[in-house]
Amino acid sequence: MSTANNSNDPRRPNKITRFKATANNGPQEDPTPDYMNLLGMIFSMCGLMMKLKWCAWCAVYCSFISFSNSRASEDTKQILSSFMLSISAVVMSYLQNPQPMTPPW
């Protein structure tokens, strides 16, 4: 019975190779949250100093992207401070001039 079973067996023992793991240096770092955090800080400073509402809103957008792409192990204080700075830029720009935002183009 084993010889009949072996003739119908589709597996090929001569094609079996042992798995060799590639040398991977751990998970790759994604620089997107860091770049968005830096852009958020720059836009919020431009929004605060130059009273540009669109810069303040871009800072909020960049802060959201930075927060959503960050890992749980990263420093949450820096992300939270960037988010609060961008919110304060929006608030201060609307306190200075409560008119609706005019697009820069």
Describe how the helices and strands are arranged:
Blueprint: H1 2-7, H2 32-50, H3 53-69, H4 76-96
How would you sum up this structure, described in words?
- Helix content is 60%, strand content 0%.
- With 105 residues, the protein is an all-alpha fold.
- The protein has a domain at 32-69.
- The protein is elongated, with a radius of gyration of 27 Å.
- 20% of the residues are buried.
- The model has no long low-confidence stretch (mean pLDDT 84).
- Belongs to the Asterix family.
- It is found in: Membrane.
- It holds the Pfam family ASTER.
- Residues 1-30 are annotated as: Disordered.
* Global morphology: elongated
Percent helix, as a range, is: 55-70%
Mean pLDDT: 84
Taking the alpha carbons of the first and last residues, their distance comes to: 82 Å
Please give the number of β-strands.
0
Count, helices: 4
β-strand percent reads under 5%
**Biggest sheet features:** none
Low-confidence stretches are none
- The structural class is mainly alpha
| CA radius of gyration | 27 Å
Q: Give helix and strand order, one letter per element, not per position.
A: HHHH
List descriptors.
4 helices, 105 residues, single chain, mainly alpha
Characterize this entry briefly:
This protein is mostly helical. The protein has a domain at 32-69. It has helices at residues 2-7, 32-50, 53-69, 76-96.
